[in-house]
Each structure stands twice: as structure tokens, then as C-alpha cells.
């Protein structure tokens, strides 16, 4: 099964089970993917988490049923996973701007989030710069924190982590330990813990032993796809992540191995249009 077909199969599975409980593990299984990488790919391509997609689609269908049927509001709430009418009403108003009873009376406008269909446009107009690097295992020294993968909590937490370490000088302490081939601070995603949580490191490649207050990580040997990112953070790197998954992977013979991924941030002004950073993804050839 191809990569796009696998992702669409997972979306079709979600659509089929909108009116019953479904777990992220069951969804990711449809795409033959780990939970972490399915969630990551889905959010990069759609700008929406899996949980948010399910919530939006369920509330869209609930609104349609409220408008077109005389089914009791409490029954519709239970059907789409809400234990109480109060919880359903709160979520419904947040999405649609009106209450369920107002929707039944056709008061106000409703928001419809339509079913996703994955379409990939392979374009040569905006070329991507990348190289393939064979690299032996290496040591990274830095700070590690665990983040929940629920509802994109990891993305919010990682941003706060960078702000904290930049603000208190820890990132400069880590940068001073650099003595390896990779010239820059590393943001490393690893140890995905069955899709429920992940470890994130802000680190540097170093042959030294970790000083007090810091930790060390052994990054395994891998064949890496190294993608150039040119432009101001965070928009530039988010754009390239989306290109990698929507354009590069579907048209190449490689797939993600599912181990550590890295972003490399060299010295310089990360908010400059001329800033150059990198994305490192471990690769294996498609079977």
C-alpha cells in the first residue's frame, strides 16, 4: 500500500467510526504507522491534530442532525461522544457560535468542516535542497523533557522550552559543548512511548561527558535526509516540513525509519529571511 493510500485509509476509518469510540492506536494501525508518526504526518499536512479533526467532524454531523431531524439533543450528544448535555453544548457553541437548541431553531450560521481527501501535488516549481548523509552514532548533550502527544500539547511545550533555555542561558552553555560535525543546536524528537508521550532534547553534538545539570543521548547510526531551510522561524521550517511529507516522500524511494528526528539551528538570527537551518530525518528504502 502506498503512503498516500495508507493515510487516506486511516481518514476513511475515522469517518466510518465518528459515531463510536475510536483510539489513535486503531487509527494509526490503518496507515501501518506508529502512533507518533501518524499524528505528526497528519498534523503537518492538515494543520490540525487527529483529535481536533474528529471533534470538528463529529460536531459538524451533530449540527446537521439537529437541523434536519427531531432527534433529542441529549441522544445526539451521547451519539458523538459527550457524556453530558453541558459538555456537548459547550463544545458545540465553541465550534458553531450558537447553542444546540438555537441550531435546531435555525438561529445563526453553522460551521461545516468537511471530510478530508488527501491530494498531493508534485511540483517542480519550488525545488527543495537536500542531501543524503551516512552518519555513525554520536553523542548529544543537553536538556531532555517529556511531553504528552495529546491534542498537540508537545508543540506548545517545546516552544516554551526553547524560550526558557534561551532566556536563562542554558542554550549558550549547551552550544559551548559543540565539537562534532553538526554545527548548531539540535532539537531532537525521540522515544515516542507508544504514541502517548515523547522526549524532546535541546542539545549539541559533543564527544565530552555531560556536565552537571545536563544529560547525554546516544543517537544511533543512520542514513539521514538533510533538508535545507532558508528563512525566518518558525514559518520557514514549518513550510519545509510540509513539503517533505506532501512532496518529497511520495516522489522518492525512501521512508522515515521512525527513530530520532532533528532540527539543526546554527548561530545567527533565526528571525532573519536569510537564516539557514536544517531538518534531519532518518531514512530507509521503501520495500
TrEMBL record:
Domain HTH araC/xylS-type: 8-106
InterPro entries in alphabetical order: AraC_E-bd, Cass2, Homeodomain-like_sf, HTH_AraC, HTH_AraC-typ_CS, MarA-like, Reg_factor_effector_dom_sf, Tscrpt_reg_AraC-type_HTH
Keyword list, A-Z: DNA-binding, Transcription, Transcription regulation
Lineage top rank: taxon: Bacteria
SMART domains the UniProt entry points to: AraC_E_bind, HTH_ARAC
Signal peptide extent: none
Full protein name: AraC family transcriptional regulator
Amino acid at each position: 500500500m502506498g503512503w498516500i493510500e495508507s493515510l487516506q485509509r486511516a481518514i476513511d476509518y475515522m469517518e466510518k467510526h465518528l459515531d463510536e469510540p475510536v483510539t489513535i492506536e486503531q487509527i494509526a494501525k490503518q496507515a501501518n504507522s506508529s502512533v507518533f508518526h501518524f499524528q505528526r504526518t497528519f498534523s503537518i499536512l492538515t494543520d490540525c491534530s487527529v483529535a481536533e479533526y474528529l471533534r470538528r467532524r463529529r460536531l459538524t454531523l451533530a449540527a446537521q442532525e439537529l437541523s434536519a431531524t427531531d432527534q433529542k439533543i441529549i441522544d445526539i450528544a451521547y451519539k458523538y461522544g459527550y457524556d453530558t448535555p453541558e459538555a456537548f453544548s459547550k463544545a458545540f457553541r465553541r465550534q458553531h457560535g450558537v447553542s444546540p437548541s438555537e441550531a435546531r431553531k435555525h438561529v445563526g450560521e453553522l460551521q461545516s468542516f468537511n471530510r478530508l481527501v488527501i491530494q498531493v501535488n508534485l511540483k517542480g516549481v519550488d525545488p527543495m535542497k537536500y542531501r543524503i548523509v551516512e552518519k555513525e552514532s554520536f553523542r548529544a548533550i543537553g536538556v531532555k523533557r517529556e511531553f504528552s502527544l495529546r491534542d498537540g500539547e508537545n508543540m506548545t511545550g517545546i516552544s516554551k522550552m526553547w524560550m526558557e533555555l534561551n532566556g536563562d542561558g542554558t542554550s549558550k552553555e549547551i552550544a559551548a559543548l559543540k565539537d562534532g560535525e553538526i554545527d548548531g543546536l539540535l532539537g531532537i524528537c525521540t522515544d515516542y512511548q507508544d504514541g502517548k508521550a515523547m522526549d524532546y532534547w535541546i542539545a549539541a553534538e559533543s564527544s565530552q561527558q555531560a556536565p552537571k545539570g545536563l544529560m547525554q543521548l546516544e543517537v544511533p547510526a543512520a542514513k539521514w535526509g538533510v533538508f535545507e531551510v532558508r528563512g525566518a522561524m518558525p514559518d520557514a521550517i514549518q513550510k519545509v516540513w510540509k513539503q517533505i511529507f506532501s512532496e518529497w516522500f511520495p516522489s522518492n524511494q525512501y521512508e522515515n525509519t521512525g527513530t530520532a528526528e532533528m532540527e539543526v539551528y546554527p548561530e545567527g538570527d533565526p528571525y532573519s529571511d536569510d537564516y539557514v537551518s536544517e531538518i534531519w530525518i532518518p531514512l530507509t528504502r521503501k520495500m
